Model the fold of this input.
Amino acid sequence: MISVFKINARPGRFACFVLPWVLFVVCFLLYTRASFVRHQENPRDKLVPTVTQLIDGVKRSAFEEDRKGDLRLWVDSWASTKRFFIALIIISLGILIGLNMGAFPYLELFFYRFFLFFDKVPALALLPILFITFGLGEVSKVALIVIGVMPTIVLDTFLRAKEFPRELNIKAMTLGASHFEILYRVILPNIFPKVLDTLRLNLKAVVLFLIAGESLAATAGLGYRIFVVRRYLAMDIIIPYVIWISLLAFSADFLLRYWIRHKYQWLNK
Amino acid sequence: MISVFKINARPGRFACFVLPWVLFVVCFLLYTRASFVRHQENPRDKLVPTVTQLIDGVKRSAFEEDRKGDLRLWVDSWASTKRFFIALIIISLGILIGLNMGAFPYLELFFYRFFLFFDKVPALALLPILFITFGLGEVSKVALIVIGVMPTIVLDTFLRAKEFPRELNIKAMTLGASHFEILYRVILPNIFPKVLDTLRLNLKAVVLFLIAGESLAATAGLGYRIFVVRRYLAMDIIIPYVIWISLLAFSADFLLRYWIRHKYQWLNK
Amino acid sequence: MHSHILELNGVYQKYPAKKKKMRTILSDINLQVSPGELVTVVGPTGCGKSTLLRLILGSERPYQGSVKVNGAEVKEPARNRGIVFQQYSLFSNLTVRKNVMFGLELEYFSLPGRFFGFNKSKLKEFKEKADEYLQRVGLLEHSEKYPHELSGGMRQRAAIAQAMVMKPEILLMDEPHGALDMGTREEMQIFVLEQWKQENLTVIFVTHDLEEAVFLGSRIVVLSQFYAGNTSSGGAKIVKDVPVGWELPRPTSIKHSKKFSEIMQSIRHEGLDPHFLQEIRDFDLRHNDSLSLNTTENWD
Amino acid sequence: MHSHILELNGVYQKYPAKKKKMRTILSDINLQVSPGELVTVVGPTGCGKSTLLRLILGSERPYQGSVKVNGAEVKEPARNRGIVFQQYSLFSNLTVRKNVMFGLELEYFSLPGRFFGFNKSKLKEFKEKADEYLQRVGLLEHSEKYPHELSGGMRQRAAIAQAMVMKPEILLMDEPHGALDMGTREEMQIFVLEQWKQENLTVIFVTHDLEEAVFLGSRIVVLSQFYAGNTSSGGAKIVKDVPVGWELPRPTSIKHSKKFSEIMQSIRHEGLDPHFLQEIRDFDLRHNDSLSLNTTENWD
Amino acid sequence: QAKTQTFTVVWSIYAGWMPWDYAGHSKILDKWAQKYGIKIELKKMDYIPSVEAYVAKKADACVMTNMEALDMPAASGISTSAIIMGDFSNGNDALLTRNNIGIKDLKGKDISLVELSVSHYLLVRALEMNGLKENDVRIVNTSDADIAPAFIANKKQEAVVTWNPLVMEIMQQPGIKNVMNSSSIPGEILDVMAVRTEVLQKHPELGKALAGAWYEVMATMSKRGAEADKAMEIMAQAAGCSLTEYKAQLKTTAMYYKAKDAADFTGGSEIKEKMNYVRNFCFSHGLLGENARSVDEVGIQYPDGSVQGDKKNIQLIFDSRFMVMAAEGKLE
Ligand SMILES: Nc1ncnc2c1ncn2[C@@H]1O[C@H](COP(=O)(O)OP(=O)(O)OP(=O)(O)O)[C@@H](O)[C@H]1O
Ligand SMILES: Nc1ncnc2c1ncn2[C@@H]1O[C@H](COP(=O)(O)OP(=O)(O)OP(=O)(O)O)[C@@H](O)[C@H]1O
Ligand SMILES: [Mg+2]
Ligand SMILES: [Mg+2]
Done:
């Protein structure tokens, strides 16, 4: 009856509302079940805390002051968010690099292979070199993210700029556009929403490197906290933190998606 | 004279041959310079080994048996490569999931939001849950890679499948294609090269999670070695290992690119 | 049995316009088509001809009203209605020949059959059939090319062959000859007529070339947004729906006859001139299947 | 000064074909065009008309031979040569009006100027100019739409406005009226003629509609791959290059004159019929700028 | 006068090192730094990265074990002085098993531990003492961050070697047995404050400030009662645990609360014997550099001036000057 496997199905209102949440609920149920079983076996189990314990963990991190009089969750979120945005801004420069590489054959020659290789270097394995170059402060944390994510953005923008229809560039030239204007007034505006999509898909990598960086040296930050309490198996703190991080990244993603959909209505075709 | 900043420049043979290597050479020179300076200061410096030391490190890892009588580099490469390919095969299933999500509105509803959220969960922070579910063996290492990379592949394939021109689906329907045939005989073959491109760009993430997984619990593997020898700052081993890993990933990328270019000549437009 | 293979009843189509309003494109379209008719559709640019085809095709559903094929409501595009789009729609990952063979293969092989029970002789048969059609549209020597290697006109012809080879019950064609030069266009017209006759197709043929419309059609339908009382948002109606009495296929010389230019003139004037605003009650809906009465006329 | 604004000398173009061979598309093309001419180019489909335009445009370089504009070798597309592509090329991220204004803005604002020295009055001027042209092509009411919201014919007209508004020295048009119905097409023809006269443009107009070619052209060039001695890989040559003697602009009634159909017939026969293979020495290259001798003729 | 010199001291979370956090938090360290006209910046890091940062000369001082001091900075030519003997592990590192397995039963079993760390050392010592060899077991390298959950979650894993607080967490699980711990090898796993010799020579005031602050904190801690509890409460929080948990960990940490005890141990002969075990372990596992020709490659100097190993390549110096000063009250 219901045309689940039809490419032109039009789900009704009810389906639109309910279906997206099914898997979340399933996950939640599985979790509570697992937690229940483990707690029956060992009432002191810390690895899979019960929901009550999780809520308690949230309360402690979000609404109770620690010894410094800080509300940890907010302090951590603020510290991480700052790094996140700084890194994001720097990474966005990768869009310009990729654009130029995609448009100018000489720059492509010069940079492409290097970025392709550099992109594959597992940054996390080279931390000592990172320390030597960038020190121990905020710079090295942001640098880790940038080194980890920027090449992907560069390469992706590069590909998009390269597959941009030549006809439109030619058209722009006949309208008097200089080579630079073609880049910034023709190619960039056209591929920008797609590039934002890429950025969106890479938020995840940003978060990953952010956490990794914070685990190394920091005094606050979401990743930092996870790694500190990890030694005590405080999953009642870790799980809410992880969900919180995911939510933040998800919201950033959502806002970007919203922005793309509304700002670039011409994309709808 | 030379039209570096021209979008229709046609670099000559010489440029094509030389330019891609310039940045590699620059990096190499910078490195040797840094290493020279540090070794003048402290001849026993281990953080930035000289080129001779690096070559010696390569020899030791690749051609001399270690304490256990293994030729480390090959044992490690073999262990990692196996994991890499198993993970890659599983991840490729993500293409099918994404395809189905992109084509069938009901599946989109059911999976999209969940994957979008799940994609953002920093897998590395939830390792304990991974251990509980998959144990400590090979499974958990592959699972880490899959959990880390598959959502990206799913989401990207999803986006590509969704932006596939409706007209062509309609056309296929008038030619008698069933809804499933549209997926596998129209959409998939058309977006496949692009999806391979995505896979290509995500090789990096695969490597990253591979290394992370191996650093957690292993007895061999490239990532394992890097983290073990880190205990005595053996950068003369780490650096060749990192370059080796990058080279392997780069070659995988290159082969994929080559395959795409030759197999999908119709893409050239 | 339904005497009409295609029925449109009170069809409206609206598209979202600025400020959450809807713009009416088609307004109260009533059209009945009997099997074996060759209906040509003309109308001013942007009047909604392509939209009309999309509704019949089923890729769009009407805002109001019903579209029925063989008495059944149209829900989605299907094997019995072929289409040649205005903007050629070949599969860019297949060569021209593979494009033409595609439908035949789909019909014969199930998805797994494609991978396992590979029937070589059948494939060969399809290849021959595809080549026969490619020969007819003059693309045989280009059969190994990919769509991006073809000129605009060549793509259109390939798309025509792709649709024709399937012998659909109803063939919908949206300005299929737009990119063809006169000679080739005439050849293609003859090809369409031949196939129509041979396979007993029902064809809905949209064109902006009046000569083509009159030459090909057993019936001409004029769609226009210009009629008395229509503000800019009123949507197009069928303002003319007339039979063309000459028997099909016709000799090309008929194009020079007086009657031919008379018909063209009247359509151009009453149907396509934005300044001539007909009253709705004056619409010339003379065709048998049309809702008005019909008169007889002399065709010689 | 060069008396010819455009010169093609011994131009060959080849494309890679199967097995690393090259296929010749254009073979020894010689063409000189004086300023202010309106050259219409016709030819069988796939003969290389679009290729010829690409060479003049500079988006492709000839395999052999030279293409000169104002005596200077053509290296890349530039401001002095406008183009309307066969497959409409609007910027999909801009509204119709913005598409038309785009060139004007580019010419006036430097890249930073766009962000800082924003000249409002200038912008307004451009907007008015764009609207004037949109009005002329009948798209004023659609000026806020994005290209994907337009029908095929509307896109073509927008592309024409976009190119026209820049008043290029040479305007290259590749079947710009392919998707237009007859009425609109005639309006657009009149628009082209008017602009041509007013701005003293040089126009190269490719079309597959012979009537259009004869009606518009001050000179007709026929390109064809069908001539005696040409195997399939020989490439197209200019097989006919004749002046059209009537003064421009012409009344539309001229289309019905006897002379008009005679010209059409002869072109169709000698130029477009694949079965009529002319000897190279018999090519009718009567035009003044052509390389053969010219004879005088009566036009009334 | 030029700007006051700033020194970076990095530390990581471990029961015996938490007093450093308290010293920073309570401004005791600032007070002492000011007294000697310098500034000291404390930075918390992960353990291995902290030593790496120290070796990369991005930090001037770092807390580490005697083993890492030998095989990381000293072996890579960063001459290091251990100026404060904080404690030795007295049960903080332990070999834990489940299913009642004893050491002798370990033969052929998988053992999770951080390879080449003090855990590894402890295991080798444990095997040695029970007549087994390292090759008799299979070592699975497991990262310290995940070793506890990995062991707890995975019932198939039967033996693990790790340190506190992980030991404490694992012990809370039912059916876990502590079969051997560092209290059986007292004084072999030492926790020291390491300062780069180069820096110390130029700025002995850094050593003085560090020692002064450290022993002030030690004094507070050893007083017992409310004030000590308050201090320890803060340390516990920084370590991410409760006061009880922290106190439990301190029980297995033999802190040298008194400067004199620390100075005496450092200056004694026992330490040379213990260090000998450690350097032999390091050499046999290639930790002195894979090219090291003998265990004597790196020289270790003791307060009495004696040198273990290569006299021309002294890279690790046990320097008790500042502890002696503190003991004699010369830092007041
Ligand atoms: N998706 C859409 N959203 C909004 N308006 C649309 C959409 N598609 C078409 N239109 C509008 O509907 C009208 C009819 O379009 P349609 O393509 O059917 O015209 P047409 O008769 O085929 O024109 P042409 O002869 O130029 O091809 C046009 O005014 C067009 O702007
Ligand atoms: N990039 C290309 N690679 C190979 N062959 C090409 C390429 N572009 C065009 N061709 C071939 O060149 C020939 C001429 O193409 P062109 O588009 O110039 O024809 P045309 O005269 O404009 O045809 P139409 O009237 O159909 O538009 C065709 O046979 C076409 O297959
Ligand atoms: Mg249309
Ligand atoms: Mg063309």
About this structure: The longest helix of chain B spans residues 179-216. Chain B is about 75% helix and 0% strand. Residues 62-268 of chain B form a domain with the MetI-like fold fold (CATH 1.10.3720.10). Chain B has a mean pLDDT of 88.
